[in-house]
Amino acid sequence: MKKFMNAAETMVAESVEGFVRAHAEFVVFGADQKFVRRRQLVPGKVAIISGGGAGHEPMHIGFVGRGMLDAACVGHIFTSPTPSQIVAAIEEADTGAGCLLVVKNYDGDVMNFEMAAEMAGSHHKIEMVIVSDDIKTERTGSRRGVAGTVVLERLVGAAAEQGMALAELKVLGSNLSTRIRSMGVALTGVTVPHTQRTTFLLGPDEIEMGVGIHGEPGHSREPFSNADAIVRHLGETVLSDIAPATGKALLFVNGLGGTPPAELYLAFNTAHRLMMERGVHIERSLVGTYATSLDMQGISVTLAFLNDEELFLWDSPVATAALRWGC
Amino acid sequence: MKKFMNAAETMVAESVEGFVRAHAEFVVFGADQKFVRRRQLVPGKVAIISGGGAGHEPMHIGFVGRGMLDAACVGHIFTSPTPSQIVAAIEEADTGAGCLLVVKNYDGDVMNFEMAAEMAGSHHKIEMVIVSDDIKTERTGSRRGVAGTVVLERLVGAAAEQGMALAELKVLGSNLSTRIRSMGVALTGVTVPHTQRTTFLLGPDEIEMGVGIHGEPGHSREPFSNADAIVRHLGETVLSDIAPATGKALLFVNGLGGTPPAELYLAFNTAHRLMMERGVHIERSLVGTYATSLDMQGISVTLAFLNDEELFLWDSPVATAALRWGC
Question: What residue numbers bound the domain in which B218 lies?
C-alpha cells in the first residue's frame, strides 16, 4: 500500500491541516481544531453542520463556506466524529438561529450526532436531517448516505444563506432526501491505513456493485464489463428505485477517489444518454471527485429530482473549496 | 487493467463528449468536433488556444471559458492534436486580435502547433508560448511542460480577458515560463489503453522521481518513503532549480489522476511548511487534480513566483469547468 502519508495516526490531522492552509480564504479551524468552520459566520443565519469519518474528502470540509456548510467535523478514517467534536461545532457555529445537522445514514454517525444534539439541546435549537440516498438492497439493509449528501448540503446551505428558518430547512432537507438517489460501483477495494487491511479484494475481472463509501462490500460481485454496461446498470437501478417527482433532475457522476477525470466524463456521457432516453430532463450536471472512499477506483451515479425553486437554490452563489460559483 | 471505457478507439471521443455535455454552460464543440471552444467568444479579444494529448484531463478542456482558454484541441491519448485540429481552432476562435498558442514542451506538440501556425499564419496573427516548467535533469533532457501549464494558461487567459494585446501576451507568457517550476513523482506507472502496456512498472516499495505526464520514466527510481521525505525532495528540487524572482509565490500540489484529495491535502501541508521554512511567501494555493497522467498514482509540486500584477490576474474572474471563481 503506497500512499502519501507519514503515519496512520497523524494522517487525518495532517491532511485536514493542509486543507485549512490551502483554503484559508474560506475556512478556519474551530476551537481546539475539533472541527473546520466557515471563516465568516453569519449572525442570525441557521448554521448548517455536517461531518463524518475521514476518507471521504473533499466531503465534508470541502463544502464549508458561503452557501453550503458552516462547520464540518472530521472523525478518524471511516469513523464518526465524537459527540464532543459536534457539540463544539454547534457551540461555535450557532449564531442565534439554531443548527441543522446533516448526517449520513450510518449507525455511528447517527448515534454521535444524536448524542451531541441532546448534549447541546438545552442551549441551542437543533434539528437533524438524515441523508439516505443510497439504493436499498436486501444485503446492504437500510439506505446509506453517500454522494447525494453533496446535493442536499448544497441546497439546504443555499436556503439557509437566503434566510430560511430552521423548521423549514428541516422540512426541505427531509423532503429532498426522498428525491435523491445514488448507486456506486468499485473496480478495486480499499486498504485502510491503520489496519493495513483491504476491505475486500477484487480479481482482475471483477467489480463490486452497490458499494458505499466506507470500503464495505456492495450487494453483488459482477464480472468486469464495459463502461456502458456498468453505468447503465447504475443508472437503471437508481431510476427504478426513485419515483420521479418532476421531470427535471440533476445528474451527478462522482469519483470514489482513484478514478481520473477522463473516466468520469466518459461515465457521465453514458449516464446522460440513458437519462435522456428515459425522458429525464437533466437540468444541472456535476462531474468530479466529491465523495470518496479513500483511493477506491470506482464511481457513483446520483440522480436528484429537483423543482424550480431547488434548481434556483443550486444556482445561487456558493464559495467553498470544492464547489464554487457566483462569487 | 480495469477502467471506465468501452473501447480504446472511442475512449477519448466519448470522454470529451461527456465533458461537453456536463459543462455546456462554458463550452461547445468547434467545427467537426475537432476542438472544444468557449461558448461565448469575445470579439476583439486575443484568443488563447492550447491543446495536447488526451489523458491529462481536466487539462486543457477543463480550462476553456472566461478568463482562461478560448479553445483546446485534444489528440489521442498521449499524442499531439493534429495541425488540422489546431488550424480549425485558430480559424474559429480568432475574433480579430490574433491567437496566442500555449504549447507544452514536447516534440510532437511543438511540431504540430508550429505547423498549424505556419498553415494559418497568412490569415491570422499568431504567437506561441512554449511551457517548460519541469525541472531539468540529464536523463529527461530538456524541460517538459507539465502541471505549471495550468498557472500560465490562467494568467495569460486573465490578461487577454482584460484586453492585453498579442505581443504583450507573448512577453508575459514567455516571462512567466521562467518563473514556474514543477516536479512530479509516481507511486505507480500507467497502462495505456490502446497498447495495454504499462509504461513502467514499480515494485511495492519503489517510486519514480521526476516523472512527466505521459507515463514516461523520470530521472531516478527511489525507495518508497513517507510523504514528508517525498514531498520535501520535490519541493527542495524545485526551489534549487528556480531563481526566486520575488518572495511571493503560488504553491500548487497537483494529483496525477489516481491520488485522492486527502493525500493531496497532506502533501500540500508538507510542501507549504517547507516553503515557509525557506522564506517563500505562499500568497496563493491550488490543490487538486488538474493535470493528469491517466490514472497514475502520484503528485507534482509546482512553485510559481508571481509579482503583484500577476497575483491580481490570478484572482480575476475565471469561469471554466475546472477553475472557477469571481463569476
Answer: 180-306
Locate all alpha helices (DSSP H) within chain A, ordered by sequence.
Answer: 11-22, 83-93, 107-120, 148-161, 166-177, 227-240, 261-277, 308-315
Count of positions (residues) in chain A: 327
How many CB pairs lie under 8 A apart between chains A and B?
Answer: 195
- CATH number of the domain residue B21 falls in: 3.40.50.10440
Residue of B nearest to A250 (CA): B22
Q: Are A126 and A169 in contact (CB under 8 A)?
A: no
Bridge-based pairing state of the strands A47-54 and A99-104: parallel
Task: Tell whether B227 is within 8 A of chain A (Cβ).
Answer: yes
Measured between alpha carbons, how far is B272 from B251 in angstroms, rounded to an integer?
Answer: 7
Are A263 and B3 an interchain contact pair (Cβ–Cβ within 8 Å)? yes
What's the pLDDT tens digit per position in A146-185?
999 999 999 999 999 999 999 999 999 999 988 999 999 9
Collect all residues of chain B within an 8 Å Cβ-Cβ radius of residue A17.
Answer: 269
Nearest CA in chain A to B77: A262
Q: Does B231 touch chain A (CB under 8 A)?
A: yes
Model confidence, pTM: 0.97
- Residue A119 class from Cβ within 10 Å (0-12 exposed, 13-18 middle, 19+ buried)? middle
Of A2, A14, A319, the CB nearest to B297: A2
- Judged by CB atoms closer than 8 Å, whether chains meet at B226 and A7 is answered as yes
Kindly report, residue by residue over A175-222, the tens digit of the pLDDT.
Answer: 998 899 999 999 999 989 988 888 899 999 999 999 999 988 898 999
B59 lies in the same domain as B188: no
Residues from chain A that touch B226, judged by Cβ atoms under 8 A, are 5-7
Query: Can you read off the three cell numbers belonging to residue A202?
Result: 477484487
Question: Taking a contact as any Cβ pair under 8 Å apart, which residues of chain B between 55 and 114 contact chain A?
Answer: 55, 57-58, 62
Does A165 lie at the interface with B, CB-CB under 8 angstroms? Answer: no
CATH number, residue A300: 3.30.1180.20
Per the structure, how many domains does chain A have?
2
Q: Which distant-in-sequence residues (6+ apart) come within 8 Å of B323 by Cβ? A: B62, B63, B68, B150, B154, B290
In angstroms, what separates the C-alpha of A121 from chain B's closest C-alpha? 33
A119 and A197 belong to one structural domain: no
Residues contacting residue B47 through CB under 8 Å, at least 6 positions apart: B41, B70, B71, B90, B93, B94, B95, B97, B98, B99, B100, B160
Cβ of A263 within 8 Å of Cβ of B15? The answer is: yes
For residue B312, the surrounding DSSP H or E stretch is: helix B308-315
A266 to B5: CB separation less than 8 angstroms, yes or no? yes
Contact B151/B252 with Cβ under 8 angstroms? Answer: yes
